[in-house]
Ig-like domain-containing protein (Canis lupus familiaris), 155 residues
Amino acid sequence: MKRPWDALLGFLWVHVYLVTGMKVEQSPSALSLQEGASSILKCNYSSAVRSVQWFRQNPRGGSLTRLFYIASGMKQSGRLNCTLNAKELFSTLHVAASQLEDSATYLCAVEAQCSLVICSLPPNCRWACSTSTSPGGHLPPQQPVQFYNFSFLLQ
């Protein structure tokens, strides 16, 4: 059965995990766009972070693919562009000229800055932390990470 691919209809689901009091909020709460249009996913967070990572998971599940690791400024890879505004406490993922294959679950992982506070991950977050999430390898289990999930489903 053929589906009409002329429109990409995206619904965003948000899974927010509180880590050491940090809150992450998503905007927009829902997204509907035509194929070829550009979109912006935004993660706002409540306190300073060391870095932000953006991941992608295909609609059928499977492993996470890291799209970006960013500690400041902007990075680009093909039609994807990632920014981190540490002063304004947000990160964005721009998808230019969206295509059907962009349909996926996108996750924003925020690494909090902790000094004298003992930080730990909530149990329901551990699965995502087992993937390679930093340039040098795995995040240590005590490292605070805030995961934020955007899911796009086609209809």
